[in-house]
Amino acid sequence: MFLSTPQVSGVDENRYELITRSEFRRKLMGILLLSISISILASFFLIIQFLAPDVDHTPTPKPSAPPTSTSTFTPTQTVTFTLTPTRTPTPTLLPTPTPTPPKGMVPIEGGGVLIGDRLLGAYEPPYPQHYETVDSFWINEFEVSNEEYQECVDEGVCSAPVITYTLRHPQYFSNPIFNNYPVIGVTYEQASTYCQEWIKGDLPTEIQWEKAARGIEGYTYPWGNSPVHVNANLAVPDKSNDVAECGKYKKDKSPYNVFDMAGNVSEWTRSWFVSYEGGYVSFDYSNEKIVVRGGNYSTSIYSNYPMTFFRRGVSIDVVSNKIGFRCVWQQPEYE
Prior knowledge:
Layout: H1 10-51, E1 105-108, E2 111-115, E3 130-134, E4 137-140, H2 146-154, H3 188-198, H4 206-214, E5 266-272, E6 289-293, E7 311-315, E8 323-324, E9 328-329
Parallel strand pairs: 5-8
Antiparallel strand pairs: 1-4, 2-3, 4-9, 5-6, 6-7
């Protein structure tokens, strides 16, 4: 069956044509308006693009992260811990420093020593002759000098000598010319203070003094058994003698190289004047008299004073310009 085109009349045909043209114009106007709108929008965007400031659109580089170190795994040794019982550590004992003797001292070996004499007579203080034993010690090579004693006075440990002059020298102790001469005119207490407080020693006992003077040979004089007056600073007949420089008389030297033990000046010890055991005469001057040893410049070689074993007692309060001293020092003992 075929479809047929509707038939219209002449009036209707004219009307239809009018409608079609009107619709065409309407559509054409719509297209024209759309085109104009698009043109206006395009122009508007172009104007905005032209008026806008230049902007750098280059992307900002992001900071790169610091390179991370690549750690290399190193295998470590496996440590095995073994538990052991706790033990109290033994303290390390430091060696005790060995003290040294004061300057100017010589060593005296310990042991037996011949003491006293049997020839002077049974009623003399050195009788009877016998043996004693002493420990090792050190003793001044020379008698304590003015200069050495002055140092002790300057430091306020010692007091000045009571007598500061000699027979020939009115200014003796304070005169630098006599610095190396033996100090004299000091009491027993002053001598003891110097030895104990200044050099940390002591005055010698009379046994120590005799050991240093006569040696193991048991000499009558420091140099031997013959009385030679020129060997020491002793009194010379018809001549006024005086104190001499320490060590000037080179032959007045004991077997231990201790000088001036026969002459120059006599010397304080720290022993009380007490009789030896077994003697015919018994006496005890403890706390009254101190033993003084050695001769001096006013004694003769033919007297008993220069003999190494001769002893005499002097009051503890005596001050003499013929008496000096020397000190001893012993090694401290440690437990």
